[in-house]
Amino acid sequence: MLTLILQALINGVLLGGVFALLSSGLSLYFGVARVANSAHAAFAILASHLAFWLYTLWGIDPLVSVLAVVPILFITGVIYQRILIIPVIQQPPLTKLALTFFVAIGVENAMILCWKNIYRSIAVPYSMVSISLGEISIPLIRLVTFLISIITLILLMVIIKYTKVGKAIRATADNREAAQICGININYIYMLTAGISFSLAGIGGVILGLLFAFYPAVHVFWIGKLYTIVILGGIASIGGSFIAAFIIGFLDAFIGTFTSIMWSSIVSWVILLLTLLLRRGGLFGR
Amino acid sequence: MHSELRILEVDKINVFYEELQVLWDVSFYVKEGEMVGLLGANAMGKTTVLKTISGLLKPKSGKIIFCGRRVDQLPPHKIVESGLIHIPEGRQLFPNMTVLENLEMGAYTKRAWEKIKDNMEFVFQLFPRLKERKYQLAGTLSGGEQQMLAIARGLMACPKFIMLDEPSLGLAPKLVEQVYDTINRINDAGATVLIVEQYVGYALQVVKRAYILENGRITLEGKSEELLHNDHVKKAYLGL
Amino acid sequence: MGNTVIDTIASTWGALWKMMIISKKLYRFIGVIFFLAIIPLLFRQVYLLSFLNLILMNYLIYAGWNIIGGVTGYNNFGHAVFFGIGAYVTAMLTKNFGLYLWTLPIVVITAMIIATLIGWPILRLRGIYFGLGTIPINYIFQYIVILLPFTGGALGLMIKPGISLDPMSFEILFYEVFLITASLTFIASYKLLNSKLGLGLIAIREDEDAALVFGVPTTKLKVIAFAISGVPAALAGGLYACYTLYIDPSTVFTFTLSLYSIGANYLGGRGTVMGPLISSVIITVLLEQLRYMLGTTYEGLHMLIFSIVLILIILYFPEGIIGRLRKKSKIFF
Q1: Partner of A268 for a Cys bridge, out of A228, B96, C70, C96, CB 3.0 to 4.6 A?
Q2: If we measure between CA atoms, which residue out of C226, C243, C284, C223 comes closest to residue C81?
Q3: Are the beta carbons of A167 and B104 separated by less than 8 Å?
Q4: Does residue A157 sit within a domain?
Q5: What is the value of ipTM here, to two decimals?
């Protein structure tokens, strides 16, 4: 029993890191540009497919294909902000929410059109390797993806905290008008933020492809989980969603260890609803 | 002292919030090196004028000319680049960033960034209190410190022209004196200043020339001395 | 809390009843409906009738959403739940008691009660939080149905029709029933928009805080609107169950249906009376055509095109077709 719990705890940490990466992009985009991007997961799954094909067709290891995925997703994000968000900036938030969902469905069906709605997974040679610590086994792939997630998040934090442009992003999120009168071009900041958000989704998608089976329509499952994490953590607080990601990670790990993982989906949805009803600002929001 | 060159010219601007008109044919000018006041009671449109000049709002008609170039259709960041700095009402800082970071953001433009070290020194000399609280979050500063930071942040941008919106708002009288003292020093150093104030009596003792804004229209203008003796001003704003 | 729930249900019922009162202006409308009603006698085509039935059913769903989403501005991302409730209430009552079409009044009441119970807590949320809060209910209801023993689980429910008719008569019967239900819904929508309740809802959409200041009982009105929005959708669900004789949780509680309701109203014109009508025709025709032309060869293409259409609508015509016409010609639709 104790080993099971320990196993679940370790899985929880490893999952939490990945969830933290996946939700950071969503949280960033909303915190800075006030865009609840429901298509975030759809683009992540798109990245999963890209990584899959790069590996299957040309043998490029997913961890290397990240180098290709990131710029592609970055540019996609910039275009997304420019073409899809700017025209609707004056619209009420619920209209923008509907729009991002339609984009998500569009991306889903574009993927179905190209690659059919079937299960896939990126099976690299080291997918099956496990590290054993006594009775606990840690799949190497989970450890690797966890490390990538943490490194990416640290990199993100460094950029946001210490670079001039990172500070401009924080300033824009803090007070939009004040940022403008400091000479910050906020449209440029929004596009940059979108690019970064999409890049994070891209890396997250590659990781998803390595860890789980995916198919085009699965983005709905993931965006639900990501929204749960972001709302639980407090919608504009990146630190909050970081912690919430681990909470959900532990939850999923325990669900997976002790009952069927099929429950994790509905549990996420219920937590989302309960958080909104009981404490809309989440754990760390205002 | 000031030259005869008009550094800022506002020419018959009409500004709307959605469908509601708030400014009617507002026109005024500021000469290089001057310290001018834009005065009036609350909610008369003074903040709207400043926001329109700095580009946060766009006029439906009319022109704004700064240093000889039209700026009314430019985005705010371009206007800041040309040296026109707006220090907004209510401080408008970045509450979750440190004093130091707020100042850094003030120097965001290329021109200002090159001089960031010098400007930072100058500003810390002007406001020693800010130097003490360099690493403190701006949201945790007192009202007076926040006003100082707002002005300091504006100064970091190498301004040719500074617009201050109600710099005395919410401050104790002693602090108000300090703030206006600082503004005078900035003006002496060569920057042109436009001050928006609701404390008309006080402002008229600080600026040499002023415009009175009432209900979105400029109703009076002239040298401070003249305005102080004007009947309408005396009745409406000085309680005499 | 119980008192306010009953009070709200009573107000909702009262509002619905007021909408049913017929006035002289409607005689023209009834004439149009009469003409439409005899169409099946002129064109005896099963395919055409079933197509029209589909349009009318979609109209009921979209018109329902319009009340809470279009008129009140609260985009409900869980509208499919009402459809599913209607379908399951009818299916279960028919399976156990053979009530078939007679379940419809019960469907209405059930929908109103459940809508009020869900609505009270959820409508306290504003903006994005409301939208996000309504998404989980799609899945929660799916799971409730799958888990409960008497609902047929994930495999769904199959029912026997309470009447035995040949295919043509079957279609005609359902055509007339759909037509009557759709007409009542249309009349109700029209009357709602011209009523005090409607005005209050529009005020909430335009500026809820101002409405509060002016004494509009926003929470109560929102819940009433939510309850009313569920009725046509639930009826559509009940009729769907009677019509197709088989339902399962993933079809009737699908989040996609909720998204369709939203998209359809942006297309037609949120908050208008004719909007849902136009969009139900366009969307049903569009989807059928696309599926016919592209369906199996290029899987996903028809949905992709549909998504692009919806995206373009929100980007460039968020006021919808009727909204655009309103702006241009000032005719009140």
Answers
A1: A228
A2: C226
A3: yes
A4: yes
A5: 0.91
